[in-house]
Design brief:
The structure is a single chain. About 40% of the residues lie in helices and about 15% in strands. The longest helix is centred in the middle third of the chain and has 21 residues, at about 345-365. The chain contains 22 helices and 19 strands. It has about 550 residues and is an alpha/beta fold.
């Protein structure tokens, strides 16, 4: 028997979570969620953390779930508190991260009756959760318990959030002894269906140029196996070229990284000459918009996407679906597919051009001016090879893609929706569950936007944060369109003169600062070796960064700026 809330249905719902082995919970303070808190605290096996800001709490839970691969539970009071979960929920949905969202609510007959902190919570997240339900506070039927159990299996197998809304009547703080539930819980997970090898072989057999692109994959355990399988594919199939983004974590010797570095300088003749006959893709979102634009210009090319559950229209035309885990597909493909004998392989064509780009890349960086690009060139050489690099969004993740990194550096980013709103909180959540060094490289606007991330206890000592302070939204200087709009500032680039120093001091964080390459080299090692969470703010020239980058791509294209 446990001393828990006297609302039996609430206790049963939490007991189902425990029965499924869920251990991580983040609560935010409130009153309406008191029965949920009492039920959660009745289970000593649950690791409970309290985070005041619900938006921060949700992104911190996201980071924890990414690290563990297991669902993290969120628990909050009713009303606007619930809405603050939404940014992290949509990120979890599109990045396929398991979350269980427990939200307290007013009784249904009190909604829209001018009660405080009451909104229409039922089905609030319906477009961005795998399942949703309303929990009866009194007692749950066996059917309801089985349904809750099935939703936990779903969030783990498919990946994504589920929402349990709990209408609660007063009084809220009553307790009583509760027995553990005795219902059978669901534990089945779907098997990989058979792969349509006959149909795929028809596309494969006539293809002299097969392109496989790997998008975001944050599966740490499977990363090494995927790299080995991809290496075997490139050795067996000379007609195959594998392109990957850093956040796919599939870095291997024969693969082609740095897609934008490869695509952007290509001439029209090169783009046509490297047109694939068959396109395969796996993983999540692609950072490179240029590769999408290039591939969309070949609507006749067969496209097969390998994924157990989701099949996006990446190229604005239907892809053919392979419902399988990518590892399963790669393993079987070595047996089912045949190599093509040809004097000059597609892989060789790609590699020769990529080597030319890499050579010019290195030459340009030898005497490039101080800028965002120069900063990332230094980080590429100085960050530890074995660590976690959490990439900020907008320009940060794009600069990262221009460099080839160690295969032992594990890359993460919030690329499900690609927002800046919870980058720091997610990195903190991940670092809390990690024994490795975690480095967050983020932009200035994202850093200031998510400053409440530091308003929580037990900040992880293994997290180091580098803030690229270029005085505004630097991404809008390097993408097409904003400069020509006539409203560049303040609607696109929001300039500022703020520094991270006061913020770091407020939260007791170690602080380092650099505004030149020399200053960066002087303080970088101290930041890297810091024994506590530390912030390194690097100031770069706002009005020069885009010029340096334009010159860089011109040099890649012509061998001169």
């Amino acid at each position: 028997m446990r001393q828990s809330t006297d609302k039996k249905g609430v206790d049963q719902a939490v007991a189902i979570l425990v029965r499924h082995g869920i251990r991580q919970v983040i609560c935010s303070p409130g009153s309406r969620n008191a029965p949920l808190v009492l039920a959660i605290r009745s289970h000593p096996s649950l690791e409970v953390e309290v985070v005041v800001d619900e938006r921060v709490a949700a992104f911190t839970a996201l980071g924890k779930a990414i690290n563990s691969g297991q669902a993290c539970v969120l628990c909050c009071t009713s009303g606007s508190a619930v809405v603050n979960y939404y940014p992290a929920i949509v990120e979890a949905y599109y990045q396929r991260v398991p979350l269980v969202v427990l939200t307290a609510d007013r009784p249904e007959d009190r909604i829209d009756q001018q009660e405080g902190q009451s909104i229409r919570q039922k089905d609030l997240f319906s477009e961005h959760v795998l399942s949703q339900c309303s929990i009866d506070e009194k007692e749950l039927s066996e059917e309801a318990l089985v349904g809750l159990s099935a939703s936990i299996v779903q969030t783990g197998s498919i990946g994504g959030p589920v929402h349990w809304n709990v209408p609660l009547s007063e009084p809220l703080y009553g307790t009583s002894e509760q027995e553990d539930i005795r219902v059978e819980i669901s534990s089945s997970k779907p098997n990989d269906p058979s792969i349509p090898w006959i149909e795929l072989k028809e596309s494969w057999s006539g293809a002299e140029r097969v392109l496989l692109i790997c998008g975001q994959i944050a599966d740490r355990e499977a990363a090494g196996e995927k790299r080995e399988l991809l290496q075997q594919w490139t050795e067996r199939f000379p007609q195959l070229s594998v392109w990957y983004e850093t956040i796919s974590n599939t870095e291997f010797e024969a693969g082609m990284s740095c897609i934008d570095r490869f695509i952007i300088p290509m001439s029209a003749e090169e783009k046509e000459g490297l047109r694939p006959d068959l396109l395969l893709s796996m993983g999540g979102e692609w950072v490179s918009r240029k590769v999408k634009k290039w591939l969309r210009s070949f609507p006749e090319v067969d496209h097969w996407h390998i994924d157990r559950y989701r099949h996006p229209d990446l190229l604005r035309r239907p892809s053919r679906e392979i419902h399988a885990d990518p590892r399963h597909f790669l393993q079987e493909g070595l047996e089912h597919l045949t190599p093509l004998t040809k004097k000059r392989s597609y892989a060789t064509e790609v590699r020769e051009l990529a080597e030319l780009r890499a050579e010019r890349h290195q030459k340009y960086l030898l005497d490039s001016a101080w800028s965002d690009l120069r900063l990332f060139a230094i980080l590429n050489k100085r960050l530890p090879q074995k660590a976690v690099l959490f990439n900020g969004n907008s320009s940060v993740v794009r600069y990262t893609q221009l460099f080839r990194w160690s295969s032992e550096l594990f890359h993460l980013a919030n690329r499900g929706v690609s927002g800046i709103d919870g980058v720091t909180s997610t990195a903190i959540g991940y670092a809390k569950r990690s024994s490795e060094n975690v480095f967050l490289v983020t932009g200035d606007l994202a850093f200031f936007y998510d400053s409440n991330a530091f308003w929580q206890q037990d900040l992880p000592d293994n997290l180091k944060i580098l803030v690229v302070n270029n005085g505004g939204g630097g991404i809008f200087r390097i993408i097409e369109g904003p400069n020509a709009s006539g409203w560049f500032g303040p609607h696109f680039e929001q300039t500022h003169q703020r520094s991270a120093k006061s913020l770091a001091n407020m939260y007791g964080l170690q602080y380092f600062c650099a505004a030149t390459e020399e200053e960066l080299n002087n303080c970088l090692q101290d930041w890297l070796s810091s024994k506590a969470m530390a912030v390194l703010e690097v100031h770069t020239p706002r009005e020069q960064n885009d010029i340096v980058l334009d010159n860089y791509f011109n040099y890649l294209r012509y061998g001169r700026s």
